[in-house]
Specification:
2 copies of one chain form a homodimer. Chain A is an alpha+beta fold and 243 residues long. Chain A folds into 2 domains: 2-94, Pseudouridine synthase I, catalytic domain, N-terminal subdomain (Alpha-Beta Plaits); 107-242, Alpha-Beta Plaits (2-Layer Sandwich). In chain A, 22% of the residues lie in helices and 29% in strands. In chain A, strands 1, 2, 3, 4, 5, 6, 7, 8, 9 and 10 form a 10-stranded mixed sheet that branches. In chain A, strand 8 (166-177) and strand 9 (180-187) form a beta hairpin. In chain A, helix 1 packs across helix 2 and helix 3 (136-143) packs across helix 4. At the A-B interface, strand 4 of A face strand 4 of B.
Chain lengths: 243, 243
């Protein structure tokens, strides 16, 4: 039986989502718990995509298959009792056998959080502490250039050799709550480092180091030959995955 | 020269505020940094009061004396560069030599945070996760009985042998933000465990295990002979100290 699972995690103490030898990862913790529940049969988890080291998720989605029979409610409880306190299963529901957590994604929502105010110890792992001045109106203007279908090659690593780097961003937003700035992107898919590089460029523009026109110029460049400052991971959170 | 310092901390990884042998405490970290700055002369820090293990502070206040000459701005910078990332100095200002961070307190504000909704890994160290139902209107009614001047003997530890256990609570409030409930107390002073025991009783009342009248009854009891569930420390935060 196939299950669709919605879960959250605090990425601080993980070496990212994907299994890596001898490192603590989210995928490894999930597979360990599910394998135990699935009568010790090695159980694989397929998520909507990976997140990097120190990146968080409020509603990540994955699928997996179980041989045993268990109610959704009991499965959620069993998982949460086995998982460490920095991962939490929000819901787990039986789904059709052709549901695929990665291939069927319609859109994803990412939020990047900046703190322009006083450093706050209890938020230190969840925001990018930015103590220079930023022009919010410039930030609001420049982010809009990311909307639409573009080749985001300039915003991924030069070592990333994938063929198709065209993605669509349906919506962007800047949300403000006093000194906390939340930069939101909704798109059909995001590549490794793409959000952090887009945010890095926006910060350079809003702090006067680059110009608003640089967004368009880099989107038309279609190659990674210009250095962009990658914003640090702790400010990034996968907020939602839509199917 | 005497200084008044306002600072914040994430209590999660500390064994409370006060120095204890071979344990990591907030006072110890502050005194270590200040002693280093004060030309290695042993420097003592006096705060407005202690906080327990895992309890946080948004604006704690302390005073200390330095022999060296340094601007307030440079002192703040030096402190923050020496302090660990879970303590942060918000401001430090020269003050009169008779300022005393403990004796001159006019009032203190504490907030206790409950999460009645889905467990959220990134908030796990800052809220008390409460997954049974609570009657908010009962909570709102019963907290009001704490306002005024009362003998809070029944709300401290039976081992606490201090003479004067009369305190005044000027204001209480219940703030709601979806599933997050914040219980606020402003008073002229709070004793060890007092806030967590008041919250513990309020939760028992709002969950139907005790009655609203029990607040008054315990305030008139003037002794600790009845067990109250002490609410866990991670939900508690010292928000402000007024002089």
């Amino acid at each position: 039986m196939r299950y669709k699972m919605i879960f959250s995690y605090d990425g601080t103490m993980f070496n990212g989502y994907q299994v890596q030898k001898e490192k603590r990862t989210i995928q490894e913790e999930l597979e360990k718990a599910l394998t135990y529940i699935n009568a010790k049969k090695k159980t694989k988890v397929t998520s909507s995509g990976r997140t990097d080291r120190k990146v968080h998720a409020k509603m990540q989605v994955a699928h997996f298959d179980l041989d045993i029979t268990i109610t959704d409610y009991k499965l959620k409880r069993a998982l949460n009792s086995l998982l460490p306190e920095d991962i939490h299963v929000i819901s787990v529901l039986k789904t059709s056998s052709d549901f695929h957590a990665r291939y069927m994604v319609k859109s994803k929502e990412y939020v990047y959080t900046l703190n322009l105010g006083e450093y706050n110890p209890i938020e230190r792992n969840y925001v990018y502490q930015y103590n220079r001045s930023l022009d919010i109106s410039t930030l609001q203007q420049s982010i809009k250039y990311f909307e639409g279908t573009h080749d985001f090659r300039a915003f991924i690593s030069s070592e990333d050799k994938r063929e198709n780097t065209v993605r669509t961003i349906m919506k962007t937003d800047i949300l403000m709550d006093n000194d906390i700035i939340r930069i939101k992107f909704i798109g059909d898919g995001f590549m490794k480092y793409q959000v952090r590089n887009m945010v890095g460029l926006l910060i350079e523009i809003a702090s006067g180091k680059k110009r608003i026109e640089d967004v368009e110029r880099l989107l038309l460049l279609k190659q990674r030959k210009e250095a962009i400052k990658t914003a640090p991971p702790e400010g990034l959170c996968l907020e939602k995955v839509n199917y």
